[in-house]
Design a protein that fits this description.
The chain has 365 residues and is mainly beta. It is built from two helices and 28 strands.
Length: 365
């Protein structure tokens, strides 16, 4: 009888172990299937909120607007959403008016309290190790030179800003490469370079102000060179930065690179192509945009825009699954925006309405 009980116990234990393993496998799979998709970042109406995240399931073709509210009991964002960044198991949202950092899990449920202390006019963020670096224009900025701008260094574990690093000139987009933080400056003809060990600041001179980066597989950078109202330049296009030497090695001319604050530069998954948004006003002052294609191997722009004639163009994203381009546009900052999906050859495939003023997207798998 005792032997029978022991065998029975062993059988039950084995069955329990198998069920536990299967449940773990299901638990591992289910969140991945649940979160997979494209998440559109809708800035909203300036100073009036309305920021939101739209989820597009590219496997089923289903678009869900205000997905963030669905996942958080109907609660709205209290800020305009300036930028979204994914790192490890979190999604970080940069909010303006009110200025804050919002942290969410992959299900887009807010997972930490919002951070607002020492974040004044935040713009962009990037992570390295246990730290999130946030570019900030500073309180009450002087819009001609932005002398009080800085980088906030936030400890991801404590969810607090540990220190700030002064960086005049209006820091915008950033990227980490070869132990250094490269910062595009939108009000100074330079790129800021911060050594992450010593936190010493140096600069790379540029022929125009800069806005955003993409990083190649060798950890070198391409940066958009733009002309703005405060700092006019005829030398617009792309700049190539060797991050080991921290030098601007080459520039590639392209007229009318967009100076808007959105995702104006993206690469495909294999980093064989870089897409850059261009935009200009027509005779009736309507902003019309296009997507230029840069061939990384030949270091040249195609003579003809891949996509053109987009009214109110505001951002671009590239699906890493299939290299389809998602181009965003907005007729105004109050009404619904639009997401057009193009093949990598520029053929329009689908269109979807999204939230107010879409400025880009991120992808979760």
């Amino acid at each position: 009888m005792k032997r029978l009980d022991l065998r029975l116990i062993l059988i039950l234990f084995s069955l329990g172990f198998l069920v536990s393993c299967n449940n773990n496998e299901i638990d591992d799979l289910f969140p991945g299937e649940l979160v997979e998709g494209c998440y559109v970042v809708n800035y909203g109406s300036y100073g009036k909120g309305g920021g939101s995240i739209s989820k597009y399931d590219y496997n089923t073709g289903l678009m869900t607007n205000f997905y963030n509210e669905q996942q958080n009991g109907g609660r709205e964002f209290l800020s305009n959403i300036q930028y979204a960044y994914t790192y490890n198991d979190s999604v970080y949202l940069i909010g303006n008016l009110a200025d804050q950092l919002v942290t969410m899990n992959p299900l887009l449920v807010q997972s930490k309290n919002g951070v607002s202390e020492q974040l004044n006019n935040p713009r962009f963020c990037v992570a390295s190790g246990d730290y999130l670096y946030i570019s900030c224009l500073g309180p009450n900025p002087d819009w001609s030179k932005i002398p009080g701008s800085y980088i906030a260094k936030l400890n991801i574990n404590s969810n607090k800003v540990e220190k700030t690093i002064k960086l005049p000139g209006g820091p915008e987009g950033m990227e980490v490469a070869n132990g250094k933080l490269f910062v595009a400056l939108n009000y100074k003809d330079s790129i800021g370079v911060i050594d992450l060990k010593t936190e010493q600041v140096s600069y790379i001179a540029t022929p125009a102000v800069t806005s955003y980066f993409v990083k190649d597989k060798g950890e070198n950078l391409y940066v958009t060179l733009v002309s703005t109202y405060n700092n006019f330049s005829t030398e617009t296009g792309l700049g190539y930065i060797n991050t080991k030497t921290a030098k601007l090695e080459s520039t590639y001319k392209l007229d009318n690179v967009s100076s808007s604050y959105g995702s104006v530069i993206q690469s495909n998954d294999g980093f064989t192509k870089i897409y850059v948004i261009t935009s200009a006003y027509d005779a009736n002052w309507n902003l019309t945009g296009a997507v230029a294609e840069f061939n990384v191997a030949t270091k040249t722009f195609n003579s003809k825009s891949l996509v053109s004639g987009i009214s109110g163009i505001s951002g671009i994203a590239v699906n890493p699954k299939d290299d389809n381009m998602y181009v965003f546009s907005a007729p105004s900052v109050t009404g619904a925006g639009k997401m057009d999906i193009y093949s990598s050859t520029g053929t329009l495939m689908k269109s979807h309405a999204v939230g107010a003023f879409p400025i880009g997207a991120f992808f979760l798998e």
